[in-house]
Amino acid sequence: MIDHETNEKHAANPEPGDFWHEMLSPIAVVLDVIGDTVVFCRNRVDVGENYWRWNHKLSERLPKSEFANLFRYKTLPKKFYADVVPRAHMPDVRAYQEQLS
């Protein structure tokens, strides 16, 4: 069941590691928040049978105001089609940070 209160909070103020999914199908992970900019990843790469990982090299950047609308229905802008699991993908955040250094 979609938790609109938690989704609203993390859409407006994302945190590194936030995992967005639709019925447990991965959509995006937040890798960093720099001021008003959200660094996130939607691209995955297969790493074996039934296994995948986020492709950090194809990360994207959006202002928080635009990011906040990514997971909402276009015709019902107050409703979310996706759900967030706060800070669930912290290993990906660490991997992304290591990639930058």
What do you see in this structure?
The protein is built from three helices and seven strands, in the order αββββββαβα. With 101 residues, the chain is of the alpha+beta class. It has one domain (4-100). The strands form two sheets. The protein has a five-stranded antiparallel β-sheet with strand order 6-3-2-1-7. The chain has a two-stranded antiparallel ribbon with strand order 4-5. A hairpin with a 2-residue loop joins strand 1 and strand 2.
Secondary structure elements and pairings:
Layout: H1 4-12, E1 19-22, E2 25-34, E3 37-41, E4 44-48, E5 51-54, E6 60-63, H2 64-67, E7 83-85, H3 90-100
Antiparallel strand pairs: 1-2, 1-7, 2-3, 3-6, 4-5
Helix/sheet category: alpha+beta
For the residues shown, what is the average pLDDT?
Answer: 93
Domain module count: 1
User: What is the terminal-to-terminal distance?
Assistant: 39 Å
Which sequence of SSEs, written as H and E, runs from N to C?
A: HEEEEEEHEH
Shape: globular
What percent of the residues sit in helical stretches (DSSP H or I)?
Answer: 10-25%
Strand order of the largest sheet: 6-3-2-1-7
By DSSP, the count of extended strands is: 7
* Proportion of residues in β-strands: 25-35%
Poorly predicted ranges: none
DSSP summary: helix tally? 3
Radius of gyration: 13 Å
Largest sheet: 5 strands, antiparallel
